[in-house]
Write a structure and sequence with these properties.
The chain is mainly alpha-helical. It has six helices and two strands. Helix 2 (34-46) crosses helix 3, helix 2 packs across helix 4 and helix 4 packs antiparallel against helix 6.
Length: 122
């Protein structure tokens, strides 16, 4: 940690020395989604030390993007698996569209609850 402190440059704000820290966006055109922003907010509010380490080492944008991608992929897979396990298919969609929507919304809520607990808020 001492090496990192020696490498940082500081500027004076009133009586305090503040480190010159900026986050480089090395993600290209990737747009953060819902889960990336939820993870970022969680880290800022509840894991301040880990958030600061990621930010100072320049790994924060990549970490947030990876969490966002993984969460989206897991939600899609869980929904697909739940639909398959409960025989929710195109036939049900044609015959009873409101029942199909109800079940798919239930599967989405279940999938998001799992992903939020296991991936975002840990």
């Amino acid at each position: 940690m001492e090496n990192l402190r020696e490498k940082l440059e500081y500027h004076q704000e009133k009586d305090y020395l503040v480190p010159n820290v900026a986050i480089k966006n090395n993600l290209g055109n990737y747009q953060l989604g819902k889960y990336g922003y939820l993870r970022l907010y969680y880290l800022k509010k509840n894991k301040k030390g880990y958030y600061t380490d990621l930010m100072l080492e320049g790994r924060l944008p990549k970490h947030i993007a990876n969490i966002d991608k993984e969460a989206n992929m897991q939600v899609k897979n869980i929904i697909k698996n739940l639909a398959k396990a409960n025989n929710v298919d195109e036939m049900l969609k044609q015959n009873s569209p409101f029942e199909w929507v109800r079940l798919m919304n239930n599967f989405k809520n279940t999938a998001e609850e799992i992903v939020l607990k296991e991936l975002i808020y840990n």
